[in-house]
Every structure is written in C-alpha cells, then in structure tokens.
Design goal:
The complex is a heterotrimer of chains A (551), B (107) and C (174).
Chain A (H helix, E strand, L loop, with lengths): L5 H23 L4 H9 L3 E3 L4 E5 L5 E3 H13 L4 E4 L5 E3 L7 H10 L16 E2 L14 H11 L14 E4 L13 E7 L5 E7 L11 E8 L3 H15 L10 H8 L1 H15 L8 H9 L14 H9 L1 H10 E3 L5 E6 L10 E3 H14 L3 E4 L5 E7 L3 H10 L14 E2 L14 H10 L3 H7 L4 E4 L13 E8 L2 E8 L11 E2 L6 H18 L6 H8 L2 H8 L3
Chain B lengths: L8 E7 L5 E4 L5 E2 L11 H16 L3 E12 L2 E4 L2 H8 L18
Antiparallel strand pairs in B: 1-2, 1-4, 2-3, 4-5
Chain C lengths: L1 E4 L9 E2 L11 E5 H6 L2 H6 L2 E7 L16 E5 L7 H11 L6 E5 L7 H7 L3 E4 L4 H8 L16 H7 L5 H7 L1
Parallel strand pairs in C: 2-3, 3-4, 4-5, 5-6, 6-7
Antiparallel strand pairs in C: 1-7
Classes of the chains: A alpha+beta (551), B alpha+beta (107), C alpha/beta (174).
Chain lengths: 551, 107, 174
C-alpha cells in the first residue's frame, strides 16, 4: 500500500486546518452557506435529510487494517455505530455533527486518510478493480497509476472548479470490475505489441439522467504520458464544458456535442503541446510509487487443500460461499475473498463498527493487513491462503458477514435513497431488503446464477440502475413512491444501457415483477446461459408480456 | 415568488451546527418535535413564519429552510409529504435512530 | 476594495476606460478586450500601459494578437465557481507567453487564493472584509503535488531533486 511521506502528511494536515477554519468562519457567519457549500462538499460534507453526511475517501478502494479500525472508531465515537460503503469505494457516515468534522478529519489524517474531493465539481476518488494486484486475470496492477492520479488531481489549481463532478476509473484486467465505460474517464491497462504498458483511454461515460457509455479516444497511451494526457482532457473540458445547466455540464454532454473524434483531436493537440513538460512525473517518482505496491511475498502453495474440501462437503453454506465469494489469486494456493455486505433482509453496503473491527482483525491475521472496498459495496480480503478459508468463514458467518451471495441476485447495489438522501424521490433500501427476503434461498440463487440488480432512488443514478442486468429507478409519483423496471444493462466490459420495460410499480409490485422476469429467464435459458445473455438473445417482449400481461 | 397557499403550512430546517432536523415554533424558536411546529394557513401568516425563519437562517442558526405542507390531525401538525415526514422521524430502515425514537434521542 | 498581491509583482494603479472615453497621454488604462481589438496602433502608443478586461468565457486565442501590446490582463469572474478563469490564466502564461500582470476580479473567495496564484494570477481584487482571510489562505500550504506557475517545483519532482537534504524520505520509500 502507498505510505505517506512528510509531504503527503503536511498537505493533509494543512487541509484539516483549513477546513477547521472554514467551519469556524461558517459558524461565525463570515462565510454564507452559498460560499461554504462548495468548500464543505470538497471535503465530503453533505447535508442530508436527517443530518450532515461525511464521505471519506478510500483511495482506489484500498484500506489497511489500521485504517478500517479507525473507521470503526469514528463510527462509534462520532456517528451512530455504523458506516455505509459506496459504489465509488468510499465510506459515508450518516450522522456527524458539523462541529465535529474537523476532529474526525484530524483522526483520519493520523491513519493517512482524508475526505478531500469526495464531492464537489472536482476530480473525485479514482476507483479501480477491487482485486487489483491480486487478481489472476490482470495485465498490470492499476493501483500505482491510481495513486499517481490521486496526487496529480489533489488540489489541482486549475481543475478544482470544473463545470461538474469528474470521475476516473481504471482497470488492469480484461474483466472490467470497475465499470470504466461508465466514467468521465475510463482507463484500461494493456500491453502493446512491443510488450510495453499503456492505456486505452475512454471518455464521456456517465449515468445520471442522460446515461452514456464512454467512447475510446485513444487505443494506446504510453504509461509515461498518462498525466499530461489527462491534463489535456481536463483542460478541454474545463474550458468548453457547459456551465449554464448542471444537467448538461458533465463531460459526456460535451463529448456528445463535439463528437468523440473532435474531442480526441482537441485533446491530442493540447497534449502534444504539454507533453514532456513537468506535468508528467519523473521516472524515479513512478518507480517510488510502484515500489509501494509490490506483491506481498506469498509462498506458492497447492490449490488442493483437502481440509477445505472436507469442510465444504459437510457444510453447504460454506461450500456455496467457496463457490460464490472466493475468487482466483495470482499465486497458487491463494484466493481473494468477497465479504458480502448484503445479508438477506439487511441494508446493502452498511457495516457496523464491530463488523469493521472484525474484518480488520481478520485482515491482520490472514490477508497481509489489507482490505479492499468493491464498487458493488462489499469488502474484500485479498491474498488469503486457501487453507485458512474455513476459519475465516466461521468468524464472518458469526458476525453476519458470511452470506454466500457475491455476484448473485441478492448482491444488490442500492443508493441510500429517501431514507437518508435529500435528493431522493423514493426509498431504495427497503426494496433491496424485500428482494433479498423474497429470494432468501442460496440454492435458488445459485440456480439463477450471476444476476446484478441495481437500485437508484432518483435519476442521479447513484445506485447504477442504468448498468443493472435488472435496474430499478425510484420516482415520486404524486407524492407516492413508484418504481420503474429496467432490463439489460451492464457495467462490465460488455457495457450496455438498461431499457425501461414499461409502467412503474409500487414496492410490492416491483418485487413481484422481478420474480416474473427471473421466471421467464429460468424457463427460456439455454444450457449455461446467464441472465444477461438470455435477455440479449430474446429481447424485452417476452419479459414485458410476463410482467404486464399485455395479451 | 409567493406561491398560492393551499392548506396548512409549517417550516422545516436543519440546525447549522449539527444538521439535525427542526421545526419552527410559534415562539420563533426551533423544536425537534414536528408537533410543536407553528401552522399557518393563509398568505400573511405563512409570510410571517417565513420571515422569522429567514432571520434565523441569516443569524446562522439553521440552514435549508423550507415551508412545507402540513397534515393537521386533532390540532397536531405533521409534514404531509413523505420526504419531510421521513425527516421528522428518521430513516425508515433504522427504527432505532432519529426522532422516531424520541425527540431527545441523542441526549 | 483592496488588492491582494499573490506573487509580489510590482503593480501600479490604472483607470478603467468607460465606453468611448479616450485615454489621456501617459496614463495606465484598462478596457474591454472587444474595444482593444478595434483600436489602432496609435491608441497603444499614446498611453503608458494598456490592460484588457475579459470575462472567464473569453477564448485565449482572441487575446493572442494583442498579447505583446498588453501590460496586464484582468480576468473577471462572474461567479467564484466559474473555473474557466483558471484555465484562461494558464493559457495566457503557457500558450501566449504572457508575462505581464494577470488580475482576478469578481466574487472569488479566499479559499481560491492559492489556486489563483498557482494558475498564473498575480493579483486579486477583493472586498476589504476579505483581506485577512485571503492573506491567511496564502500561508496555508507550502507544498503541492503539481507543477504550476509560481516557479515552485512540484512535489513529484522535488522528492527526487533534494535527496541529499532529505535522506529519510529516500529510505522510507525504498
């Protein structure tokens, strides 16, 4: 993991002092709310329905055990004993007092964490593959590049007051677990014919009320040119992005208006002018950052572990967890564990302080002190020796963290919705709870197979409904919550936009509709065919007929 | 930009220092209890409430001030719209948190 | 209003030319870019110094023909969140090679002082009551990750340029 040097510490400490001063100036009335708002947002402080909310950055989803313990401590001391992991690999606290936030930031700084640029019209936390540096299918580890981008984008003098928020995602594997095509900039690490590392650069993706899948503007960008190229993209956007209408201010609208080719041309022109200027960091700095992400020295072990097989034979839930929540690691005899934060009937992405403490303890003992946050709102223990799985599962299961549903229908992404969010039109969480209660049967879920349900409580799409195999969008219909059903989206390498199937439902109705959609799939699927493939093969009509009975 | 008033209205806001939800009372103070809220049902009295609330906002006591529709049963007001009703209580998925526990749940 | 000097540049007062008013000889004047673009050589020769006033939405290329005749440029922010002003200053320095004074006016806030300085601004005109906050903000940060227009070395370079003086940094990282 990256470790701060004196400079990094100095910057973060200066920021805490600055925010403390800003809070004091706001409380004294020196700053108006209009002036304070963008400043607090750039430190991750929102005003939600019931209280302020603090969004803490988890840079590219990587946490140390000590950092996770600190988050647990903050949940206990300043909040109501829990936190919420988000689709951008961050964590949100729902009840901090504004007057306490500077102290919270001070405590975070002690463990090299912050809330810088977790909101506001600036470059946000860079997200990546939760299995980065540990996945078996990886071309290169994206984390060093994510850290380079984090540093370049932190307090960028020119790009802190952009037309709108700006999100960058990066993946190092062929399987896209970071939804890069749905980001303002998506980067895909690849090797060229000469075996050199570089990136495919995608721009203009985004969700919100105008869902757009990003377009590739460069097939191969040499790694050394990453920052100057990003700077060129951002400069064009900062100058030309719309500022007259916040719903048309994202880069996706500009890329659409200019055309991807023209955007590529403008970027290329500016990039040629600034390439090799100091914006690109020296090779020694790249090497320094890479050194922090060296693979841990794991012994090569056998993938055959009879004790694990024996335990799985006796225990169906463990066997299911082994199949669904455990994935391949680069080093034989090792695995990565997805800890589901989607207990059936529970709140997706929420973790209590004691659960955080437990995961931190397990990380210290079994996963090199490392924890990851996935964009699907789960936690990951990377680099685990396969032989340790039964012990880990037993501890997790006892704490309500052993649900064997990773990647299955009940592994629902849901935004906080109207239960917390001031922008929401409808609740999301109760719907996720009803769906997981309805499908509370691991055998049935495994029979259904990979199926991603994503729920947003408003058109801002924080719950990624546009990218759901089944997407659900909550709307306010004359003061009543109503839910639209969308099918066929994907956030993976085969990214696609989900389409609305038909008229909306109330809460009970939408759960029934989901069940009907699943029933069509089960009846129509071909051998080994996953839900999304069946939908793409058949199209929406047969699902529409089942859900609405139009005949 | 005065909107035509239809039915009883109340004023909701968040306290500046801790963000907690409060309602404007007839004494010009703020209460965590929706039932304590002052209710106005004509333009003149709504404007009067609004100006008291705005003064409080300008004095940096509250933010996010909104005049909202009230449901009044047996003389007790409650926010009519689901969003503001949620604010008066707390998250529906955490019955253990918020003013649904008690108006002084944090003390 | 009070003038905050971000870079220590030497600056003198100037007059804003209203409408078609003509400048007196040997004066320092500021006028909207649109007017300056129309003016003939004689205008520039008559006065001591000319500055262009532009809004944040100006295309830097429209300043190019005048750049070597201008002593200063005033970038007027219509709102503090209009970040185009930062890119405009960068463009003036980077693409037009402009070395004169760049001043920010409009409702910019103290918390932007360092961003202004780092993007190439020299001065900023602020309300009197903001003076202390602006000056305090300038002292808040001493190191930055990026290269900028203050002549400071970016951290990413500085980390490796100062090895002799900071051996402990090197040890930690390797």
């Amino acid at each position: 993991m990256y470790a701060y040097d004196d400079y990094d510490h100095a910057l973060v400490n200066a920021r805490v002092a600055e925010f403390r001063d800003q809070v004091n100036r706001r409380l004294s009335g020196e700053l108006t709310e209009e002036e304070f708002r963008p400043l607090r947002l750039m430190n991750g402080v929102y005003l939600q329905l019931h209280a302020y909310m603090l969004r803490v950055a988890v840079p590219y989803g990587t946490l140390s055990a000590d950092q996770l313990r600190k988050l647990a401590h903050i949940a206990r001391k300043y909040d109501k004993g829990y936190g919420h992991f988000t689709t951008r690999q961050n964590i949100q606290f729902n009840w901090p007092k504004l007057v306490d936030v500077p102290d919270i930031l001070d405590e975070l700084a002690d463990v090299e964490m912050h809330a810088i640029q977790t909101s506001g019209n600036c470059i946000r936390n860079v997200t990546t593959d939760q299995f980065a540096g540990a996945a078996a299918d990886e071309v290169a580890d994206p984390r060093p590049y994510a850290e380079l981008i984090r540093q370049w984008s932190t307090f960028h003098p020119e790009f802190t007051f952009l037309p709108r928020k700006f999100k960058i995602a990066i993946t190092g594997a062929g399987a896209d677990r970071a939804a890069v095509k749905w980001h303002d900039i998506g980067l895909v690490l690849k090797k060229n014919d000469a075996g050199e590392i570089g990136f495919a650069v995608i721009v203009g993706g985004g969700m919100g009320r105008t869902p757009v899948i990003g377009k590739t503007i460069r097939d191969f960008l040499p790694e050394a040119d990453l920052l100057s190229y990003l700077e060129a993209i951002l400069r064009v956007y900062n100058e030309q992005g719309r500022r007259d209408n916040k719903y048309k201010a994202r880069i996706k609208i500009l890329v659409d208006a200019l055309g991807a080719e023209e955007y590529a041309r403008l970027t290329e022109e500016e990039w040629q002018a600034i390439r090799h200027h100091p914006v690109d960091v020296p090779a020694e700095e790249v090497a320094r950052i890479h050194a922090f992400f060296k693979a841990p020295p794991l012994p090569v072990l056998s993938d055959d572990v009879p004790t694990v097989d024996a335990f799985a034979e006796k225990n169906f839930l463990f066997a299911a967890w082994l199949k669904n929540n455990v994935s391949a690691h680069k080093v034989p005899g090792h695995v990565n564990i997805t800890i589901s934060l989607k207990p059936h009937g529970g709140i997706p992405g929420d973790a209590s302080h004691s659960q955080m403490d437990l995961v931190a303890a397990l990380a210290d003992r079994y996963s090199q002190g490392e924890v990851r946050v996935s964009h699907e709102q789960n936690l990951i223990l990377p680099h685990v020796a396969k032989k340790d799985l039964p012990a880990i599962w037993a501890d997790l299961d006892e704490a309500g963290l052993g649900t064997a549903n990773a990647g299955l229908l009940t592994d629902v992404i849901a935004c906080p919705g109207l239960d917390y969010c001031a922008l929401a039109n409808a609740r999301s969480i109760p719907l996720a709870q009803s769906i997981s209660a309805r499908f509370d049967d691991i055998k049935r879920l495994m029979d259904i197979g990979p199926l991603k349900i994503k729920i947003s409580g408003c058109i801002n799409s924080c719950g990624h409904h546009h990218a759901g195999h089944i997407g659900i969008l909550g709307v306010d219909r004359k003061g009543e919550e109503s839910y639209q059903l969308l099918l066929g989206g994907s956030g993976a390498e085969d990214a696609s936009k989900a389409a609305i199937l038909g008229p909306g439902f109330d809460e009970a109705g939408i759960v029934d509709a989901v069940e009907k959609v699943v029933a069509v799939y089960l009846g129509e699927r071909e051998d080994g065919e996953e839900f999304l493939s069946t939908y793409r093969r058949l199209g929406p009509d047969i699902f529409k007929e089942a859900v609405y009975g139009t005949h | 930009m005065a909107k035509k008033i239809s039915g009883p209205q109340m004023v909701i806001a968040n306290r500046l220092d801790d963000g907690r939800v409060v309602f404007l009372t007839s004494s010009g103070d703020w209460s965590a209890r929706a039932a304590d809220a002052a209710v106005a049902d004509d333009d003149v009295s709504v404007d009067a409430l609004r100006s008291v609330a705005s003064a409080s906002e300008a004095a940096n006591r509250v933010l996010s001030v909104e005049v909202i529709e009230a449901d009044v049963h047996n003389g007790v007001p409650h926010p009519a719209h689901m969003k503001f009703a949620m604010q008066a209580k707390g998250p529906s998925v955490r019955a253990d948190l918020g003013y649904q526990v008690s108006p002084d749940w944090e003390r | 209003m009070v003038l905050i000097n971000l870079t220590g540049i030497t600056t003198e007062a100037w007059t804003h030319l209203e409408d078609d008013m003509m400048p007196g000889a040997d004066t320092r004047v500021a006028a909207p870019l649109a007017r300056l673009t129309e003016e003939a050589e004689g205008f520039f020769a008559a006065v001591e110094a000319v500055g262009a006033v532009v809004s944040t939405d100006a295309d830097y290329r429209s300043l190019a023909p005048l750049a070597n005749k201008l002593s200063f440029v005033v970038i007027d922010f219509p709102a503090f969140g209009d970040g185009r002003g930062f890119s405009l200053a960068v463009r003036l320095r980077k693409d037009l090679g402009f070395t004169g004074e760049i001043r920010a006016t409009g409702p910019v806030i103290p918390d932007q002082a360092i961003h202004l300085m780092r993007s190439g601004f020299d001065t900023v005109e602020v309300e009197d009551k903001r003076e202390a906050a602006f000056k305090a903000a300038l002292k808040r940060y001493s190191v930055f990750y990026q290269s900028d227009y203050t002549g400071r070395t970016a951290l990413t370079h500085a980390r490796h340029a100062v090895q002799e003086r900071r051996p402990e940094q090197q040890r930690k990282a390797s």
